[in-house]
Amino acid sequence: MVYFIPARYLCLTYILCYCTGGRGYTIEDEVFALFDDLRSLCFEPVSLFCLGIIFNARQLALKLIANVTYGYTAAGFSGRMPCAELADSIVQCGRRTLENAISFVNAHDQWNAKVIYGDTDSMFVLLKERTVKEAFEIGREIASAVTAMNPHPVTLKMEKVYHPCFLLTKKRYVGYSYENPDQVKPVFDAKGIETVRRDTCGAVAKTMEQSLRTFFEDKGINKVKTYLLRQWARILSGRVSLQDFVFAKEVRLGTYSTRSSSSLPPAAIVATKAMRADPRAEPRYAERIPYVVVHGEPGSRLVDMVVDPLDLLATDSQFRLNDTYYITKQIIPALQRVFGLVGADLSQWFSDMPRPGQDFIAKRHSYALNSHRTRIDYYYLSTHCFLCGELVQDSAHFCGKCSKNEAAIATAIVGRTSKSEKEIQHLAAICRHCGGGDWLLESGVKCTSLACSVFYERRKVQKELHALSTVATDAGLYPRCMVEWF
């Protein structure tokens, strides 16, 4: 297959490699001109996908050059060329230029436009009851007029159109963006919200993005409510991947003002616990430590309910994911900040929804594997019948009616065990393909990568096999399955 690259792309690459100014340093005009050319090429159809990625990376590099050059003048402690007077002058000139542009746009009757947000070097202009193409036309007129009223090289450029859009707070907005008037499919563009932040978990980011996409495409809140109720039901019933509920936040041991370990951030708590078990587990400065939130005793603080994900994923683990915390303290507050603007009350939605029941395998503790019940919830946690799902007393696996049907019990246990064994064999084959060799069948899968979705699924199936093995052993069908081989 032959790829044809336009000649101007090749020329652009040449300009990046060599200085065309004939001097030892690239002049300012060349940096800005090259930045504009690269940015425009990022949104054009290119034969090679990787070429578009390269162009995007290079235009970001040029943007950083311009930003850092100014930033050095304001960095008095660590800057290489500090000059506070120059930095203050730049800020004041930029502020005055922005205020003049905002006043000019708001005072222009022909455009019927209103600047609803301005920050440093950009403006968000509201154009009511206009199409995307009309917005581009007016935007270009505004850009030309504002550029003409400012001295060279101050230039205002028409960048994109958001339709629709949520403008939350300063530097926090999201919407469907159009880079040119002929663009048919918009791009989901988010800045500063949970979908692009790294200090939240995947469940929050994925739920928010899908909710926003649903709202943008359907222009209504009813389908968003239906989607959220379905997602909350999946979380409460345990039909989710633990990978989406792992937090990973930076830890800077030695910089916290408190001396009490119980007052440290959750990630630091998990790090100190690991260091007690192994002093060599001390994290590097600003290293991100993963943790999950599990159920604790009534009235427990957050720092008392955080554990390492591997502790929750252990086959004989007695921890349970705190699904209520993730819904009420993470998902709902993040989405309420967005959909509260259209009058939605997500807390009320969650309060009114019926609570689904968990699968018995997810709720049942493996008492045979751990006879030391150190917490009180081991004694009052309800269990359900393996066949019909009815509540049973004590540690019984079947209700009185189903326990009389031995054939149905044997069929159900063998069927579920066979299905789980096939799943874990399939997952082991994937791990064997990734790691290589046949050592997996002899010593088991030793990989514990928290970034691998197969690892979470493998541990989930292992827990199910252990629970099924307990039921089968108590029913006298066959010995306990040695799932640790897998």
From TrEMBL:
Protein name: DNA-directed DNA polymerase
Alphabetical list of InterPro entries matching this protein: DNA-dir_DNA_pol_B_CS, DNA-dir_DNA_pol_B_multi_dom, DNA/RNA_pol_sf, DNA_pol_B_thumb, DNA_pol_palm_dom_sf, PolZ_Rev3, Znf-C4pol
Top-level EC class: transferase
UniProt keyword DNA repair, yes or no: no
Domain DNA-directed DNA polymerase family B multifunctional span(s) in chain numbering: 54-339
Entry annotated with the keyword Transferase: yes
Reaction(s) this enzyme catalyzes, per UniProt: DNA(n) + a 2'-deoxyribonucleoside 5'-triphosphate = DNA(n+1) + diphosphate
Keywords: DNA-directed DNA polymerase, Nucleotidyltransferase, Transferase
Any single biological process term in GO: error-prone translesion synthesis
Limits of the C4-type zinc-finger of DNA polymerase delta domain: 385-458
E.C. number: 2.7.7.7
Organism: Camellia sinensis var. sinensis (China tea)
GO molecular function terms noted in the UniProt entry: DNA binding; DNA-directed DNA polymerase activity; nucleotide binding
Pfam families to which the protein is assigned, alphabetical: DNA_pol_B (PF00136), zf-C4pol (PF14260)
One GO cellular component, as annotated: zeta DNA polymerase complex
